[in-house]
Amino acid sequence: MRRRTTPAEPPTQVLDPERLRELAQDTSAAAAEQFASAYAALLPARVDRVIRKVGIGNRHQAVEAVLSLKAASSMAGALRMSQLCRKLEQALVIADMAGALAVARDISLHLPDLHEALAARPPLT
Fold this sequence. Notes:
The protein is mainly alpha-helical.
């Protein structure tokens, strides 16, 4: 007997460099580069904060942390991270802590891929 499986969610692009190019057009290439550098530098601490707040079950602070990470990730073009943050936010809103822990783990596992993509992104200048 064959098991029916539900189709997996298609993988989301790790990094869309077009988002940073749009930011450069709205501001300047230097400002967009500075934002991208700051995003990459602060990313481990932001992810750590999200994971810690979810781990201790502090939903209010976890939501604050994930909203910050989601907004910055969206601006940086970190599409997969932004998607994971949306999933985590949804789990937190409905108080699904088991689901939130699973998504927090996925965020942690995704961090090295995002760092690699950020390091390999083409310069804006």
